[in-house]
Amino acid sequence: MSIENKAVQIVSDFLAASMAPDPVKAATYMSSDVRITFTGGRVMPSATEITAFNAARYNWVKKELGQFDWTEHADHTVVYSNGTLYGEWPDGRSFSGNRYLDRFEVRNGKITRMDVWNDSAEWILVPAIAKP
After folding, report:
1. What is the pTM of this model?
2. Is 116 within 8 Å of 102 (Cβ atoms)?
3. Domains contained in the chain, number
4. CATH code, domain carrying 25
5. By the 8 A CB rule, do 88 and 60 touch?
6. Does 83 fall in a domain?
7. pLDDT (tens digit, 9 = 90+) per residue, 52-70?
8. SUPFAM superfamilies per the record (predicted)?
9. What is the 3-state secondary structure (H, E, C) of 64-108?
10. pLDDT at 132
């Protein structure tokens, strides 16, 4: 993947560290006052909390990165990352094709806001709609 935008590279590097999972390295891409909101409106104070949340929801989870889109604003860049999640639920069932969309705001070389949406909650409630 060729990335020509610096903010997109920051987000891409953050996602790679997050999937390792290496929350310490992931945190280096975030500002100290980052605002993170996950599915269901869950506010997370740090990259460490993201890793803890995912560890409780999945045996393991990774992202199949899709495309990155971005738009420049006067004082920040908004970056969207979309693709699918794959992994294993706590009961051992594998899954793939779980759509996600992440929205990031990058200011002065750091992620200052992250919003996360995916199909996991729906798939947990109604497993029959998941397509393995």
Report:
1. 0.90
2. yes
3. 1
4. 3.10.450.50
5. yes
6. yes
7. 899 999 999 999 999 999 9
8. NTF2-like
9. EEEEEEEEECCCCEEEEEEEEEEEECCCCCEEEEEEEEEEEEEEC
10. 55
